[in-house]
Amino acid sequence: MIGVLAWIGVGVFGAAGAYARFHFGVVVADRRPSAFPWGTFIVNLTGGFALGLLTGAGVTGDALLVFGTGFLGGYTTFSTWMVEAQRLGEDADWRRMWLYIACSMLVGLGAAWFGWIIGSTLP
Question: What's this model's pTM, rounded to 2 decimal places?
Fold first, then answer.
């Protein structure tokens, strides 16, 4: 059974993760204006890497719940990824749309795997 503190932790860390994603996205958009959604792409890659690192390191229980589900769940975003891909399609920017989808999936899986490999070597 999940304790009350874990529930609170998921909420607080989820809010912190969502804020971090928003802030990072604004910073990237300001520094690198582009039709390619770099902010969400980088956020999802770093979030996948971090979750791989946690699971590879054997983090379980409330810690995984709070940091993995809470912070990283708030930090990463599947829905924004899909909306941005849809917008590229609406603009008939097919090459960029498919590149965004494919790179997000392939590089994202690679980042999660790499994080898991590194995490599994930690004491």
Answer: 0.90
Find the length of the chain.
Answer: 123
List the domain boundaries for the chain.
35-121
Report CA dihedral (119, 63, 21, 73) to the nearest 10 degrees: 100
* Residue 118 token pair: 């590194």
Radius of gyration of the chain (CA): 16
> For residue range 69-118, what is the model confidence (pLDDT) as tens digits?
999 999 999 999 999 999 999 999 999 999 999 999 999 999 999 999 99
Q: Are 32 and 91 in contact (CB under 8 A)?
A: no
CA distance 26 to 77: 15
CA-angle at 89, arms to 43 and 50, nearest 5°: 15
| Model confidence band, residue 1 (pLDDT cutoffs 50, 70, 90) | low
Over 28-53, what HEC string results?
Answer: HHHHCCCCCCHHHHHHHHHHHHHHHH
